[in-house]
Specification:
This protein is an alpha+beta fold and 122 residues long. The chain has 1 helix and 8 strands; from the N terminus they run αββββββββ. A hairpin with a 4-residue loop joins strand 7 and strand 8. The relative contact order is 0.22.
Length: 122
């Protein structure tokens, strides 16, 4: 009869141990997102041109432009590792210089690449 009274407590204890084991064995490892780029600023003359930057990311990311920076593009279009990225600029036919930003984002990290292009000289 004594065992019958202790059986519910024993079952609860076993269930708690099993739940704890399942919690630690079933978890996926969460990696903190990280993005870095070098350099973080590019300078171009007025003509169409390109330059490479080095991007490191441990999450999938794609560049996004400012709404006024459609003259800048990047290749490849998305990234998920340490890789070179080519930045392209269209010719600046205006006499004033222009500045645009490409954003490289993940859920918690954002890095900016500032792109400055000279104006056309006559």
């Amino acid at each position: 009869m004594r065992i019958a009274h202790k059986l519910p407590a024993l079952l609860v204890g076993v269930l708690l141990v099993l739940a704890a084991v399942a919690q630690f064995t079933g978890c996926e490892k969460y990696v903190l997102p990280d993005i870095s780029l070098s350099p973080d600023t590019l300078y171009f003359r007025a003509g169409a041109d390109s330059a490479d930057i080095q991007l490191y990311t441990n999450v999938i990311t794609a560049p996004e432009q400012d709404k006024d920076a459609r003259w800048i593009s990047a290749w490849p279009e998305w990234f998920d590792a340490d890789s070179p990225v080519t930045i392209y600029v269209k010719e600046n036919t205006d006499s004033t210089s222009r500045t645009g930003i490409l954003y490289f984002k993940s859920e918690a990290v954002e890095k900016k690449l500032v792109v400055i292009q000279e104006g056309l000289t006559f």
